[in-house]
Amino acid sequence: MLPGSACPYRTGELTRDMLTAQGFEITLLPALTDVDQVDDVAAVAEMRAALAAAMTDLPDRSRIVLTLRDAEDYSSGEVCALLGITAVSQRVILHRARATVRSRLETYFTTTGEAYARR
Known about the structure:
Elements: H1 16-21, H2 38-56, H3 60-71, H4 76-83, H5 87-118
């Protein structure tokens, strides 16, 4: 839970700006590293764009939990303490967010693969 607030997460006041103001750095994905070939750079860029698009329509709390857990590598306990939610809620939110993003990515890459195959 953020200082000076009963529970900003539940009132919808928790934002990326509030987290960064508290010293938390939120990024969508880690920086590109160990990418040597142009094809690899293009593939990683495409994956990052697809992931960003898949995450944009997630509810705020889902996107924040997913980002903190999977991109920022926070532990379950840290996320629960930061957002003022229970461990069960955090697991449910994370599971649903991952399933939604996975489904959207599967759809995107299936559609993209079919488009490339038709060329």
